[in-house]
Amino acid sequence: MGKKVLMKGNEAIAEAAIRAGCRLYFAYPITPQSELIEYMAKMMPKADGVFVQAESEVAAINMVYGAAGCGRRVMTSSSSPGISLKQEGISYIAGAQLPAVIVNVARGGPGLGDIQPAQGDYFQATRGGGHGDYYVICLAPNSVQEFADMASLAFDLADKYRNPVMILADGLLGQMMEPVEFKDALTPEEILEKEKQHWDWCCRPNEDEPNHHHHEINSLEIDPKELEKHVLRLGEKYDLIRENECRWENYNVNDDNELLCCAYGTASRIVKSAIDQLKEEGKNVGMVRPISVWPFPYQQVAAGVGPKVKRVVTFELNLGQMVEDVKLAINGKVPVEFMGKVGGLVFTPEDVKAEIEKYL
Amino acid sequence: MQVVATRPKSLTDLQFTYCPGCLHGVAHRLIAEVMDELDIRNETMGVAPVGCSVFAYKFFDCDMQEAAHGRAPAVATGMKRARPDMHVFTYQGDGDLAAIGTAEIIHAANRGEHITVFFVNNAIYGMTGGQMAPTSLPGMKTTTSPYGRDVDDIGYPIRVCELLDSLVAPFYIERVSLLSPAEIIKAKRAVKKALLYNKEERGFTFVEFVSTCPTNWGMDPMKARDWARENMLPFFKAQKFRDKGEE
Question: Which of A32, A305, A335, B85 has the fewest Cβ atoms within 10 Å of its own Cβ atom?
């Protein structure tokens, strides 16, 4: 670990990705993630890495597909409208079971929306996002430090499950400066070791017979019986991920909670402030913060409902998306309420506090 | 006994899935023969398209990636950048390359990616059943231009070599035809040049094959070749557009 430095989230995730062994980055400019692509343009050549500004998000994600199919650590990033364009490629990456990392510094939508922080991409991020039956592992940080820490986690998960991993941040986390402490950078030897785990299936230098290989990177199975087998295998993998990779944080969760909140990312920071203020006034409110929004920590959210909790309130910067998962988690045990803010606007701790007080 | 002709090492022993009289098999074989002759099979990776040649990843006996429709040059860019020690080629049809993949081919060429693109132009969408392609000829009847391609309504066919020839970066651009043994021998020379330049890391190389589609044109293979000679070659002239290695 090094010393703490003050950095924007967009720069911190770029630096952390390079330290985590990412040596190929393909992307297209879009606000509010511009500092990320700019940092990569500046630093990748210094790390003996590849930076290509693609002609579109569609091209960028397909470059990621090609590099991932060669077993290399590769990343792209964008913001909501650009992530929509990448969905075709993400579906192919999931179908071909390639490891890749995608960062979404989300902004207001739908359509062109605006360039302020929003959480309107939750459904897209947690339900696959493109065509077909698949999921991306989706991690949602709520600080610049956590954003940066997720880089190595995302690459390791992508490698472990041969599946795309998305880091779902937003314009606030991308633009905000906070102190951040980076992990030590992987050495070239360590990166090679990580990449070698893919050598039995990826595109790489070949030999003559009898050691000749014919590796196909592909999501096409024209025979329905074969496609069925393939999709069922994907399903087994997703079950394994659900079992092993739920991540969450309990904040002030205890048996005396009068109410439980649920929020992720930027929204969870504001809810924390509100919970702290309420605590000073003698009111005991807890929060479960999903860190992996897929797989969603259903059991952990349900377990957060203490004996005195009469209500769960979900706070999101959208019209109410994660609240559907919260309702599935709570399964009718107590009523689930929702408060949202849209348009790229962010509620204040006072707004959240007032909402909570309605139910106390 | 002496073997005078055999399957190139760079092709697998799978039977091609192409229609009788289709020239994809010829194009595949030319590429595979050249891979053998240049001894690059073990350092070569290919990208298959979406279209009739979608299964090219099964036919070429090297590591292969199957790209989404039109995206092969972007996938190849990622592969080449990930493995600069290897040679990368794409194999694409006219719908794939000249319609949905227009942005990808132009920008890969414009970056001067060190890849080779093989472009098979038969003026029609084959696999989906004979729809109009960006290279369908004026007046040409297809299932989506049943009254003939109306150039006032939908425009003229795109000449891809000419388009790419307006860019600075490409190293080698040639259009060849596969309509007779003499033309096939000439085509092989172009394939060899493209893959040799690729092997030598000279830059972006591009070979277009003027081909046929007997099935969807509704002709027997010989008639299809005559039709292509009379109709396609006047519009898509077989010529070398660019050879920086000769300059």
Answer: B85
* Structural domain boundaries in chain B: 24-243
Question: Closest Cα partner for A286 from A245, A253, A241, A317?
Answer: A253
Whether A303 has its CB under 8 Å from any CB of chain B: the answer is no
Convert the pLDDT of each residue in B71-89 to its tens digit.
999 999 999 999 999 999 9
So what's the ipTM on this one?
0.98
Interface A–B counts its CB contacts (< 8 A) at 135
Which 28-67 residues of chain A touch chain B by CB within 8 A? 50, 52, 54-56, 58-60, 62-67
Q: What architecture is domain A248-358? A: 3-Layer(aba) Sandwich (3.40)
- Fold entry, domain B24-243: Rossmann fold (3.40.50)
Burial label, A332 (beta-carbon count in 10 A; 0-12, 13-18, 19+) = exposed
In chain B, the residue whose alpha carbon lies closest to the alpha carbon of A76 is: B78
A22 vs B contacts (CB less than 8 Å):
none
Does A70 contact B78 at a Cβ distance shorter than 8 Å? yes
**B14 near A CB under 8 A:** no
Angle at B181 between CA B179 and CA B187, to 5 degrees: 70
